[in-house]
Amino acid sequence: MKMTFIGATHEVTGSCTYIEACGKRFLVDFGMEQGEDTYENVRVPVAPADIDFVLLTHAHIDHSGMLPLLFAGGFSGEIHSTEATANLCSVMLRDSAHIQEFEAEWRSRKAQRRGEEEYEPLYTMDDAIGAIELFVPHQYETPYTVCEGIEILFRDAGHLLGSSSIIITLTEDGETRRIVFSGDIGNVHQPLIRDPQFIDEADYVVIESTYGTRIHDRPTDYVTALSGVLQSTFDRGGSVIIPSFAVGRTQEMLYFLRQIKEQELIRGHEDFPVYVDSPLANEATDIFINNRESCYDEEALSFVRRGINPITFDGLIRTVSSDDSRAINSDSRPKVIISASGMCEAGRIKHHLKHNLWRPENTILFVGYQAVNTLGRALIDGAKRVKLFGETVRVAAQIRQLPGVSGHADVNGLLEWAGAVSGVKRFFVNHGETSSAEAFAQRLRDTLGAEVYAPYSGAEFDLIANEVTIDAEPVVIQKKSIPANLNINFAELTAASDRLALLIQNSTGRTNADMKRLTEAINKLCEDWKL
Protein backbone atom coordinates (compact mmCIF):
# COMPACT_ATOMS: atom_id res chain seq x y z
CA MET A 1 0.00 0.00 0.00
CA LYS A 2 1.51 3.30 -1.03
CA MET A 3 0.29 6.86 -1.46
CA THR A 4 1.86 9.47 -3.77
CA PHE A 5 1.06 13.17 -3.49
CA ILE A 6 0.55 14.82 -6.88
CA GLY A 7 -1.24 18.18 -6.56
CA ALA A 8 -2.30 20.85 -4.03
CA THR A 9 0.97 20.29 -2.18
CA HIS A 10 2.05 23.60 -0.63
CA GLU A 11 -0.54 25.13 -3.01
CA VAL A 12 -4.30 25.64 -2.84
CA THR A 13 -5.50 24.23 -6.16
CA GLY A 14 -5.04 21.14 -8.33
CA SER A 15 -5.90 18.54 -5.68
CA CYS A 16 -4.77 15.02 -6.59
CA THR A 17 -3.43 12.01 -4.67
CA TYR A 18 -2.48 8.62 -6.19
CA ILE A 19 -2.88 5.37 -4.25
CA GLU A 20 -1.81 1.79 -5.02
CA ALA A 21 -3.45 -0.87 -2.86
CA CYS A 22 -5.19 -4.23 -3.16
CA GLY A 23 -3.94 -4.60 -6.71
CA LYS A 24 -5.67 -1.37 -7.77
CA ARG A 25 -4.49 2.08 -8.79
CA PHE A 26 -6.78 5.00 -8.05
CA LEU A 27 -6.93 8.77 -7.56
CA VAL A 28 -8.52 10.88 -4.87
CA ASP A 29 -9.57 14.05 -6.74
CA PHE A 30 -8.08 15.25 -10.02
CA GLY A 31 -8.40 19.01 -9.98
CA MET A 32 -7.35 21.85 -12.20
CA GLU A 33 -4.65 24.27 -11.09
CA GLN A 34 -6.02 27.80 -10.97
CA GLY A 35 -4.24 31.10 -10.60
CA GLU A 36 -0.47 31.44 -10.47
CA ASP A 37 1.42 28.21 -9.71
CA THR A 38 4.52 28.21 -7.52
CA TYR A 39 5.74 24.61 -7.74
CA GLU A 40 5.95 21.99 -10.47
CA ASN A 41 3.70 18.96 -10.00
CA VAL A 42 4.87 15.47 -10.87
CA ARG A 43 2.76 13.50 -13.31
CA VAL A 44 0.46 10.71 -12.23
CA PRO A 45 2.85 7.70 -12.42
CA VAL A 46 0.64 5.56 -14.69
CA ALA A 47 -1.30 6.16 -17.90
CA PRO A 48 -4.95 7.27 -17.61
CA ALA A 49 -6.10 3.91 -19.00
CA ASP A 50 -4.35 2.16 -16.09
CA ILE A 51 -6.27 4.11 -13.42
CA ASP A 52 -8.95 1.78 -12.05
CA PHE A 53 -11.25 4.39 -10.44
CA VAL A 54 -11.42 7.90 -8.97
CA LEU A 55 -12.83 9.08 -5.63
CA LEU A 56 -14.05 12.69 -5.70
CA THR A 57 -14.52 14.84 -2.59
CA HIS A 58 -16.61 17.60 -4.21
CA ALA A 59 -17.45 19.40 -7.44
CA HIS A 60 -15.25 22.52 -7.33
CA ILE A 61 -13.06 22.67 -10.42
CA ASP A 62 -9.81 22.68 -8.42
CA HIS A 63 -10.82 19.16 -7.32
CA SER A 64 -12.72 17.84 -10.36
CA GLY A 65 -11.62 19.94 -13.35
CA MET A 66 -9.11 17.51 -14.91
CA LEU A 67 -11.46 14.53 -15.04
CA PRO A 68 -12.40 15.21 -18.71
CA LEU A 69 -8.68 15.21 -19.58
CA LEU A 70 -8.31 11.89 -17.78
CA PHE A 71 -11.17 10.50 -19.89
CA ALA A 72 -9.60 11.91 -23.07
CA GLY A 73 -6.40 10.04 -22.19
CA GLY A 74 -8.16 6.68 -22.03
CA PHE A 75 -9.58 6.43 -18.51
CA SER A 76 -12.77 4.36 -18.45
CA GLY A 77 -13.18 3.47 -14.77
CA GLU A 78 -15.80 4.67 -12.32
CA ILE A 79 -15.83 8.07 -10.62
CA HIS A 80 -17.31 7.74 -7.13
CA SER A 81 -18.86 10.78 -5.41
CA THR A 82 -21.97 11.85 -3.55
CA GLU A 83 -25.12 12.22 -5.61
CA ALA A 84 -25.14 16.02 -5.28
CA THR A 85 -21.49 16.20 -6.38
CA ALA A 86 -22.26 14.07 -9.44
CA ASN A 87 -25.18 16.38 -10.28
CA LEU A 88 -23.09 19.54 -9.90
CA CYS A 89 -20.24 18.07 -11.95
CA SER A 90 -22.69 17.34 -14.75
CA VAL A 91 -23.07 21.10 -15.27
CA MET A 92 -19.70 22.39 -14.00
CA LEU A 93 -17.55 20.11 -16.17
CA ARG A 94 -19.62 20.97 -19.24
CA ASP A 95 -19.23 24.65 -18.38
CA SER A 96 -15.47 24.19 -17.99
CA ALA A 97 -15.27 22.43 -21.37
CA HIS A 98 -17.19 25.29 -22.99
CA ILE A 99 -14.64 27.74 -21.56
CA GLN A 100 -11.74 25.60 -22.81
CA GLU A 101 -13.19 25.45 -26.34
CA PHE A 102 -14.10 29.14 -26.42
CA GLU A 103 -10.66 30.28 -25.28
CA ALA A 104 -8.91 27.95 -27.72
CA GLU A 105 -11.01 29.31 -30.58
CA TRP A 106 -10.27 32.90 -29.55
CA ARG A 107 -6.53 32.23 -29.22
CA SER A 108 -6.51 30.39 -32.55
CA ARG A 109 -8.02 33.37 -34.37
CA LYS A 110 -5.26 35.60 -33.00
CA ALA A 111 -2.61 32.99 -33.84
CA GLN A 112 -3.85 32.68 -37.42
CA ARG A 113 -3.49 36.43 -37.91
CA ARG A 114 0.13 36.13 -36.76
CA GLY A 115 0.77 33.08 -38.94
CA GLU A 116 1.18 30.81 -35.92
CA GLU A 117 -0.21 27.38 -35.12
CA GLU A 118 -3.76 27.04 -33.82
CA TYR A 119 -4.46 26.33 -30.16
CA GLU A 120 -6.04 23.08 -29.01
CA PRO A 121 -8.42 23.15 -26.04
CA LEU A 122 -7.27 21.34 -22.92
CA TYR A 123 -10.33 19.14 -23.42
CA THR A 124 -13.59 19.24 -25.34
CA MET A 125 -17.28 19.04 -24.57
CA ASP A 126 -17.26 15.39 -25.69
CA ASP A 127 -14.52 14.69 -23.14
CA ALA A 128 -16.57 16.34 -20.37
CA ILE A 129 -19.68 14.37 -21.30
CA GLY A 130 -17.63 11.17 -21.39
CA ALA A 131 -16.33 11.81 -17.87
CA ILE A 132 -19.79 12.69 -16.58
CA GLU A 133 -21.13 9.35 -17.79
CA LEU A 134 -18.58 7.55 -15.55
CA PHE A 135 -19.96 8.96 -12.29
CA VAL A 136 -21.34 6.53 -9.69
CA PRO A 137 -23.39 8.50 -7.11
CA HIS A 138 -23.54 7.58 -3.41
CA GLN A 139 -25.46 8.69 -0.36
CA TYR A 140 -23.76 10.01 2.76
CA GLU A 141 -23.01 7.47 5.50
CA THR A 142 -23.52 4.43 3.26
CA PRO A 143 -20.51 2.08 3.09
CA TYR A 144 -19.67 0.83 -0.39
CA THR A 145 -17.24 -1.90 -1.46
CA VAL A 146 -15.46 -0.72 -4.60
CA CYS A 147 -13.63 -4.01 -5.00
CA GLU A 148 -12.17 -6.74 -2.81
CA GLY A 149 -10.24 -5.04 -0.01
CA ILE A 150 -11.38 -1.46 -0.68
CA GLU A 151 -14.39 0.07 1.10
CA ILE A 152 -15.37 3.75 1.01
CA LEU A 153 -17.78 5.99 2.88
CA PHE A 154 -18.70 9.63 2.22
CA ARG A 155 -19.28 11.98 5.18
CA ASP A 156 -20.58 15.55 4.90
CA ALA A 157 -17.70 18.07 4.90
CA GLY A 158 -20.01 21.11 5.06
CA HIS A 159 -18.13 23.04 2.36
CA LEU A 160 -20.45 22.88 -0.66
CA LEU A 161 -23.61 21.04 -1.57
CA GLY A 162 -22.53 17.38 -1.75
CA SER A 163 -19.02 18.00 -0.44
CA SER A 164 -17.52 15.14 1.51
CA SER A 165 -14.67 13.76 3.50
CA ILE A 166 -13.91 10.26 2.26
CA ILE A 167 -13.13 7.37 4.61
CA ILE A 168 -11.17 4.65 2.77
CA THR A 169 -10.63 1.25 4.39
CA LEU A 170 -7.92 -0.85 2.72
CA THR A 171 -7.34 -4.54 3.54
CA GLU A 172 -4.48 -6.39 1.88
CA ASP A 173 -2.57 -9.53 2.99
CA GLY A 174 -4.22 -9.43 6.38
CA GLU A 175 -3.27 -5.77 6.99
CA THR A 176 -5.98 -3.10 7.28
CA ARG A 177 -5.44 0.64 7.12
CA ARG A 178 -8.07 3.39 7.40
CA ILE A 179 -7.25 6.61 5.51
CA VAL A 180 -9.36 9.76 5.63
CA PHE A 181 -9.26 12.53 3.06
CA SER A 182 -10.80 15.63 4.60
CA GLY A 183 -11.64 17.30 1.29
CA ASP A 184 -12.33 20.99 1.89
CA ILE A 185 -13.70 21.35 5.41
CA GLY A 186 -16.53 23.85 5.62
CA ASN A 187 -17.14 26.74 7.93
CA VAL A 188 -19.88 26.50 10.54
CA HIS A 189 -23.25 28.30 10.39
CA GLN A 190 -23.34 28.60 6.60
CA PRO A 191 -26.73 29.08 4.94
CA LEU A 192 -28.49 26.01 3.54
CA ILE A 193 -25.91 23.29 4.11
CA ARG A 194 -24.93 21.36 7.24
CA ASP A 195 -21.89 22.02 9.39
CA PRO A 196 -18.95 19.66 8.75
CA GLN A 197 -19.36 16.24 10.35
CA PHE A 198 -16.58 14.75 12.47
CA ILE A 199 -14.81 11.41 11.97
CA ASP A 200 -14.17 9.16 14.95
CA GLU A 201 -10.97 7.28 14.05
CA ALA A 202 -8.41 6.69 11.34
CA ASP A 203 -4.84 5.51 10.85
CA TYR A 204 -3.95 8.34 8.47
CA VAL A 205 -5.58 11.70 7.73
CA VAL A 206 -4.93 13.91 4.70
CA ILE A 207 -6.20 17.34 5.74
CA GLU A 208 -6.53 20.67 3.95
CA SER A 209 -4.97 23.89 5.28
CA THR A 210 -6.45 26.69 3.18
CA TYR A 211 -6.95 28.93 6.22
CA GLY A 212 -4.38 27.22 8.41
CA THR A 213 -3.15 30.55 9.80
CA ARG A 214 -6.37 32.58 9.89
CA ILE A 215 -9.30 33.07 12.22
CA HIS A 216 -12.53 34.21 10.57
CA ASP A 217 -14.22 37.35 11.79
CA ARG A 218 -17.55 36.87 13.49
CA PRO A 219 -20.12 36.24 10.71
CA THR A 220 -21.74 39.38 9.33
CA ASP A 221 -25.46 39.86 9.92
CA TYR A 222 -26.09 39.46 6.23
CA VAL A 223 -29.82 40.13 6.28
CA THR A 224 -29.41 43.50 8.01
CA ALA A 225 -26.35 44.55 6.00
CA LEU A 226 -27.83 43.50 2.66
CA SER A 227 -31.15 45.17 3.47
CA GLY A 228 -29.34 48.45 4.11
CA VAL A 229 -27.62 48.36 0.73
CA LEU A 230 -30.86 47.54 -1.10
CA GLN A 231 -32.90 50.21 0.70
CA SER A 232 -30.45 53.07 0.09
CA THR A 233 -29.96 52.11 -3.57
CA PHE A 234 -33.66 51.68 -4.31
CA ASP A 235 -34.47 54.98 -2.58
CA ARG A 236 -32.27 56.87 -5.04
CA GLY A 237 -33.85 55.02 -7.98
CA GLY A 238 -31.00 52.63 -8.64
CA SER A 239 -30.42 48.90 -8.95
CA VAL A 240 -28.03 46.57 -7.12
CA ILE A 241 -25.79 44.47 -9.35
CA ILE A 242 -24.15 41.52 -7.59
CA PRO A 243 -21.26 39.67 -9.26
CA SER A 244 -21.54 36.21 -7.74
CA PHE A 245 -20.06 32.74 -8.08
CA ALA A 246 -22.64 30.57 -9.80
CA VAL A 247 -22.41 27.58 -7.46
CA GLY A 248 -22.77 28.16 -3.74
CA ARG A 249 -22.66 31.92 -3.29
CA THR A 250 -25.60 32.65 -5.63
CA GLN A 251 -27.80 30.21 -3.72
CA GLU A 252 -26.73 31.78 -0.41
CA MET A 253 -27.74 35.22 -1.71
CA LEU A 254 -31.16 33.88 -2.73
CA TYR A 255 -31.55 32.47 0.78
CA PHE A 256 -30.90 35.91 2.31
CA LEU A 257 -33.09 37.74 -0.21
CA ARG A 258 -36.01 35.43 0.54
CA GLN A 259 -35.67 36.35 4.22
CA ILE A 260 -35.60 40.06 3.38
CA LYS A 261 -38.79 39.77 1.37
CA GLU A 262 -40.52 37.55 3.93
CA GLN A 263 -39.69 39.92 6.80
CA GLU A 264 -40.64 42.99 4.71
CA LEU A 265 -37.38 44.74 5.49
CA ILE A 266 -37.47 46.95 2.38
CA ARG A 267 -39.89 49.88 2.62
CA GLY A 268 -41.49 51.43 -0.44
CA HIS A 269 -40.07 48.84 -2.86
CA GLU A 270 -41.54 45.64 -1.47
CA ASP A 271 -42.06 44.04 -4.89
CA PHE A 272 -38.53 44.58 -6.19
CA PRO A 273 -37.55 41.94 -8.78
CA VAL A 274 -34.47 39.74 -8.43
CA TYR A 275 -32.86 38.51 -11.65
CA VAL A 276 -30.49 35.53 -11.66
CA ASP A 277 -28.72 35.87 -14.99
CA SER A 278 -26.36 32.92 -15.29
CA PRO A 279 -27.23 29.63 -16.97
CA LEU A 280 -24.78 27.77 -14.72
CA ALA A 281 -26.21 29.41 -11.58
CA ASN A 282 -29.74 28.51 -12.62
CA GLU A 283 -28.82 24.86 -13.23
CA ALA A 284 -26.95 24.76 -9.93
CA THR A 285 -29.96 26.24 -8.11
CA ASP A 286 -32.14 23.40 -9.40
CA ILE A 287 -29.55 20.91 -8.14
CA PHE A 288 -29.61 22.55 -4.69
CA ILE A 289 -33.40 22.23 -4.64
CA ASN A 290 -33.37 18.59 -5.81
CA ASN A 291 -30.82 17.56 -3.15
CA ARG A 292 -32.44 19.35 -0.24
CA GLU A 293 -33.32 16.24 1.78
CA SER A 294 -29.78 14.87 1.80
CA CYS A 295 -27.76 18.08 2.06
CA TYR A 296 -29.74 20.94 3.71
CA ASP A 297 -29.18 21.88 7.34
CA GLU A 298 -32.01 21.82 9.90
CA GLU A 299 -32.90 25.50 9.45
CA ALA A 300 -33.29 25.13 5.68
CA LEU A 301 -35.16 21.84 6.09
CA SER A 302 -37.58 23.50 8.51
CA PHE A 303 -38.70 25.72 5.63
CA VAL A 304 -39.00 22.73 3.30
CA ARG A 305 -41.19 20.89 5.81
CA ARG A 306 -43.54 23.90 5.90
CA GLY A 307 -43.78 23.82 2.12
CA ILE A 308 -41.40 26.77 1.64
CA ASN A 309 -38.55 26.64 -0.84
CA PRO A 310 -35.78 28.57 0.98
CA ILE A 311 -34.11 29.81 -2.21
CA THR A 312 -37.07 30.98 -4.25
CA PHE A 313 -39.70 33.68 -3.76
CA ASP A 314 -42.14 35.98 -5.54
CA GLY A 315 -40.29 38.34 -7.84
CA LEU A 316 -37.43 35.93 -8.63
CA ILE A 317 -36.75 35.84 -12.38
CA ARG A 318 -34.26 33.31 -13.74
CA THR A 319 -33.10 34.17 -17.24
CA VAL A 320 -31.72 31.64 -19.70
CA SER A 321 -31.48 33.04 -23.21
CA SER A 322 -29.21 35.86 -24.35
CA ASP A 323 -32.27 37.86 -25.38
CA ASP A 324 -33.72 37.56 -21.88
CA SER A 325 -30.38 38.66 -20.46
CA ARG A 326 -30.23 41.75 -22.64
CA ALA A 327 -33.83 42.64 -21.76
CA ILE A 328 -32.97 42.96 -18.05
CA ASN A 329 -31.34 46.34 -18.56
CA SER A 330 -34.54 47.61 -20.21
CA ASP A 331 -36.39 47.07 -16.92
CA SER A 332 -36.37 50.54 -15.36
CA ARG A 333 -37.54 49.36 -11.91
CA PRO A 334 -35.14 49.29 -8.96
CA LYS A 335 -33.99 45.66 -8.95
CA VAL A 336 -31.31 43.16 -8.01
CA ILE A 337 -29.24 41.50 -10.71
CA ILE A 338 -27.15 38.48 -9.69
CA SER A 339 -24.79 37.33 -12.42
CA ALA A 340 -21.53 35.43 -12.92
CA SER A 341 -18.61 35.46 -12.90
CA GLY A 342 -17.95 36.42 -9.31
CA MET A 343 -14.74 38.32 -10.10
CA CYS A 344 -16.17 39.98 -13.26
CA GLU A 345 -13.63 38.31 -15.53
CA ALA A 346 -16.11 36.64 -17.89
CA GLY A 347 -19.77 35.87 -18.42
CA ARG A 348 -22.89 38.01 -18.46
CA ILE A 349 -21.87 40.17 -15.50
CA LYS A 350 -19.60 42.17 -17.82
CA HIS A 351 -22.59 43.20 -19.92
CA HIS A 352 -24.46 44.33 -16.81
CA LEU A 353 -21.46 46.34 -15.66
CA LYS A 354 -21.26 48.03 -19.05
CA HIS A 355 -24.90 49.13 -18.72
CA ASN A 356 -24.82 50.08 -15.05
CA LEU A 357 -21.37 51.16 -13.88
CA TRP A 358 -21.71 54.70 -15.21
CA ARG A 359 -25.02 55.39 -13.43
CA PRO A 360 -24.47 57.05 -10.01
CA GLU A 361 -27.81 55.79 -8.66
CA ASN A 362 -26.69 52.14 -8.93
CA THR A 363 -24.65 49.97 -6.56
CA ILE A 364 -22.20 47.25 -7.54
CA LEU A 365 -22.15 44.91 -4.54
CA PHE A 366 -19.32 42.40 -4.13
CA VAL A 367 -20.06 39.41 -1.90
CA GLY A 368 -16.97 37.28 -2.42
CA TYR A 369 -13.19 37.39 -2.63
CA GLN A 370 -11.69 39.38 -5.51
CA ALA A 371 -8.30 38.11 -6.65
CA VAL A 372 -5.45 40.39 -7.70
CA ASN A 373 -5.45 41.39 -11.39
CA THR A 374 -9.20 40.86 -11.83
CA LEU A 375 -11.76 43.45 -12.89
CA GLY A 376 -13.59 42.95 -9.61
CA ARG A 377 -10.43 43.75 -7.65
CA ALA A 378 -9.82 46.87 -9.75
CA LEU A 379 -13.32 48.15 -8.90
CA ILE A 380 -12.86 47.37 -5.21
CA ASP A 381 -9.54 49.23 -5.28
CA GLY A 382 -11.18 52.37 -6.64
CA ALA A 383 -10.74 52.33 -10.42
CA LYS A 384 -12.39 55.37 -11.99
CA ARG A 385 -12.62 53.92 -15.47
CA VAL A 386 -12.56 50.36 -16.77
CA LYS A 387 -12.50 48.75 -20.20
CA LEU A 388 -15.45 46.56 -21.16
CA PHE A 389 -15.68 45.05 -24.64
CA GLY A 390 -13.11 47.55 -25.91
CA GLU A 391 -15.03 50.55 -24.55
CA THR A 392 -13.91 52.75 -21.66
CA VAL A 393 -16.67 52.99 -19.04
CA ARG A 394 -16.70 55.59 -16.28
CA VAL A 395 -17.24 54.22 -12.76
CA ALA A 396 -19.94 56.38 -11.18
CA ALA A 397 -21.97 53.71 -9.37
CA GLN A 398 -21.33 53.09 -5.70
CA ILE A 399 -18.93 50.19 -5.14
CA ARG A 400 -19.73 48.25 -1.96
CA GLN A 401 -18.44 45.03 -0.47
CA LEU A 402 -19.97 42.69 2.08
CA PRO A 403 -17.57 40.14 3.53
CA GLY A 404 -18.44 36.68 2.28
CA VAL A 405 -19.70 33.83 4.40
CA SER A 406 -16.49 31.85 4.06
CA GLY A 407 -16.91 28.31 2.77
CA HIS A 408 -13.71 27.13 4.46
CA ALA A 409 -13.06 26.36 8.12
CA ASP A 410 -10.53 28.65 9.80
CA VAL A 411 -7.57 27.34 11.82
CA ASN A 412 -9.74 26.75 14.89
CA GLY A 413 -12.30 24.81 12.84
CA LEU A 414 -9.55 22.73 11.24
CA LEU A 415 -8.03 21.92 14.64
CA GLU A 416 -11.42 20.97 16.08
CA TRP A 417 -12.11 18.65 13.14
CA ALA A 418 -8.64 17.06 13.34
CA GLY A 419 -8.84 16.69 17.13
CA ALA A 420 -12.02 14.62 16.86
CA VAL A 421 -10.18 11.84 14.97
CA SER A 422 -8.60 9.29 17.32
CA GLY A 423 -5.82 6.79 16.68
CA VAL A 424 -4.07 8.84 13.98
CA LYS A 425 -0.53 7.63 13.23
CA ARG A 426 0.21 10.59 10.98
CA PHE A 427 -1.46 13.67 9.49
CA PHE A 428 -0.61 14.82 5.95
CA VAL A 429 -1.21 18.53 5.38
CA ASN A 430 -2.04 19.73 1.85
CA HIS A 431 -4.28 22.24 0.01
CA GLY A 432 -2.64 25.33 1.46
CA GLU A 433 0.09 27.78 0.50
CA THR A 434 3.49 26.96 1.98
CA SER A 435 3.17 29.38 4.89
CA SER A 436 -0.28 28.08 5.75
CA ALA A 437 0.54 24.38 5.33
CA GLU A 438 3.71 24.55 7.41
CA ALA A 439 2.15 26.70 10.14
CA PHE A 440 -0.89 24.44 10.42
CA ALA A 441 1.34 21.35 10.50
CA GLN A 442 3.13 22.86 13.49
CA ARG A 443 -0.19 23.69 15.16
CA LEU A 444 -1.18 20.03 14.84
CA ARG A 445 2.09 19.00 16.45
CA ASP A 446 1.78 21.51 19.28
CA THR A 447 -1.95 21.04 19.95
CA LEU A 448 -2.43 17.32 19.36
CA GLY A 449 1.11 16.01 19.77
CA ALA A 450 0.70 14.43 16.35
CA GLU A 451 3.14 13.15 13.75
CA VAL A 452 2.66 15.50 10.79
CA TYR A 453 4.08 15.66 7.27
CA ALA A 454 3.47 18.44 4.74
CA PRO A 455 4.54 16.79 1.46
CA TYR A 456 5.70 18.37 -1.77
CA SER A 457 4.57 16.95 -5.10
CA GLY A 458 6.18 13.57 -5.72
CA ALA A 459 6.43 12.54 -2.07
CA GLU A 460 5.60 8.87 -1.52
CA PHE A 461 4.44 7.17 1.67
CA ASP A 462 4.27 3.47 2.63
CA LEU A 463 0.98 2.91 4.48
CA ILE A 464 2.06 -0.43 5.96
CA ALA A 465 5.53 0.56 7.15
CA ASN A 466 4.30 4.04 8.21
CA GLU A 467 7.27 5.75 6.60
CA VAL A 468 8.07 8.28 3.91
CA THR A 469 9.80 6.39 1.09
CA ILE A 470 10.35 9.42 -1.17
CA ASP A 471 10.76 12.82 0.51
CA ALA A 472 10.29 15.05 -2.51
CA GLU A 473 11.97 18.44 -2.78
CA PRO A 474 10.08 21.50 -4.05
CA VAL A 475 10.65 22.35 -7.71
CA VAL A 476 9.96 26.05 -8.15
CA ILE A 477 8.45 27.13 -11.47
CA GLN A 478 10.88 29.51 -13.11
CA LYS A 479 9.32 32.83 -14.01
CA LYS A 480 9.98 34.22 -17.47
CA SER A 481 12.92 36.57 -17.42
CA ILE A 482 13.14 39.75 -19.41
CA PRO A 483 14.87 39.16 -22.78
CA ALA A 484 18.37 40.65 -22.95
CA ASN A 485 17.45 43.01 -25.77
CA LEU A 486 14.74 44.53 -23.59
CA ASN A 487 16.92 45.18 -20.55
CA ILE A 488 17.93 48.70 -21.61
CA ASN A 489 14.35 49.69 -22.43
CA PHE A 490 13.13 48.18 -19.18
CA ALA A 491 15.74 50.17 -17.24
CA GLU A 492 14.53 53.34 -18.95
CA LEU A 493 10.94 52.45 -18.06
CA THR A 494 11.94 51.92 -14.43
CA ALA A 495 13.70 55.29 -14.39
CA ALA A 496 10.55 56.92 -15.78
CA SER A 497 8.49 55.33 -13.00
CA ASP A 498 10.90 56.83 -10.44
CA ARG A 499 10.37 60.27 -12.01
CA LEU A 500 6.59 59.78 -11.82
CA ALA A 501 6.83 58.78 -8.14
CA LEU A 502 8.89 61.92 -7.43
CA LEU A 503 6.34 64.05 -9.30
CA ILE A 504 3.52 62.66 -7.15
CA GLN A 505 5.53 63.14 -3.96
CA ASN A 506 6.19 66.81 -4.80
CA SER A 507 2.55 67.56 -5.70
CA THR A 508 1.37 68.49 -2.19
CA GLY A 509 1.63 72.22 -2.98
CA ARG A 510 -0.27 72.06 -6.25
CA THR A 511 -3.83 73.26 -6.65
CA ASN A 512 -6.70 70.82 -6.28
CA ALA A 513 -7.50 71.25 -9.98
CA ASP A 514 -3.90 70.36 -10.99
CA MET A 515 -3.84 67.32 -8.72
CA LYS A 516 -7.16 66.18 -10.16
CA ARG A 517 -5.81 66.55 -13.73
CA LEU A 518 -2.68 64.60 -12.80
CA THR A 519 -4.75 61.84 -11.17
CA GLU A 520 -6.95 61.53 -14.25
CA ALA A 521 -3.90 61.42 -16.53
CA ILE A 522 -2.31 58.59 -14.50
CA ASN A 523 -5.59 56.66 -14.42
CA LYS A 524 -5.98 57.05 -18.17
CA LEU A 525 -2.41 55.88 -18.71
CA CYS A 526 -3.06 52.77 -16.61
CA GLU A 527 -6.31 52.03 -18.44
CA ASP A 528 -4.68 52.50 -21.88
CA TRP A 529 -1.96 50.02 -20.93
CA LYS A 530 -4.46 47.69 -19.21
CA LEU A 531 -2.71 47.80 -15.82
Question: Can you walk me through this structure?
Answer:
- There is one protein chain.
- The protein has 531 residues and is α/β, with parallel strands linked by helices.
- The protein folds into three domains: 2-215 and 407-470, Metallo-beta-lactamase, Chain A; 222-401, Rossmann fold (3-Layer(aba) Sandwich); 492-528, no CATH class.
- 34% of the residues lie in helices and 20% in strands.
- It has 16 helices and 23 strands.
- An eight-stranded mixed beta sheet has the order 6-5-4-3-2-1-22-23.
- The chain is globular, with a radius of gyration of 25 Å.
- The N and C termini lie far apart (50 Å).
- The model is unreliable at 482-488 (pLDDT under 50).
Provide keyphrases for this structure:
single chain; 531 residues; alpha/beta; Metallo-beta-lactamase, Chain A; Rossmann fold; eight-stranded mixed sheet; seven-stranded mixed sheet; 23 strands
For the largest sheet, list the strands in their spatial order.
6-5-4-3-2-1-22-23
Tell me what the CATH architecture of the largest domain is. Answer: 4-Layer Sandwich
**Kindly, what is the distance between the CA atoms of the first and last residues, rounded to a whole number of angstroms?**
50 Å
- Give me the count of strands: 23
Q: Averaged pLDDT, please? A: 90
Helix content: 25-40%
Strand content: 15-25%
CATH fold node name of the largest domain: Metallo-beta-lactamase, Chain A
Indicate the overall shape. globular
Estimate nothing, just give the exact number of structural domains: 3
Could you name the CATH class of the largest domain?
Alpha Beta
Q: Determine the structural class based on helices, strands and strand pairing.
A: alpha/beta
- The quaternary organization reads as single chain
